[in-house]
Amino acid sequence: MNSPTAITAYVALGANLGDPQATLNAALAALCEMPATTLGPISSLYRTAPVGLRNQPDFVNAVARLQTMLSPLQTLAALFDIEALFGRSRSVPNAPRTLDLDLLLHGETTLNGEHLALPHPRMHLRAFVLVPLLEIAPECAIPGLGPARQFLDGCRDQSVVRIPAVAP
To answer: By the number of CB atoms within 10 A of the CB, which of 1, 45, 118, 143 ranks highest?
Structure first.
């Protein structure tokens, strides 16, 4: 009998309320506590302009790779639990937030369910997702769409500025 194999998943992290950098660092620690999941490489942090609702503070964004035995819906539920720990409320789309965790990819899974669409339906349109994703997974392909790198030119007008790392 074969034992199950961990799936590679990618999660986008974002915040623009409070101290977003500290929040993302704490959220990464919380990702380490997810059951049946190991945190892999993490991108740099990036400062980005808000999309949609523009009259709000800039965001800090990153992408993390996970190795998980959880199903896509179990992964999503764990991410929602972490968001709740940080006081995330879902008022209006694109509203300011204490923490946003988006499941971008879960292996080669494609689905369009009531609570989850994979791959994330707008990931290829967002520089704040593509730039950090490609930093840690330069050869990443989006199931059904192709190499993630091919979508960067379409996001050229979106500002994504790497935040320099602070020495410990």
So the answer is: 118
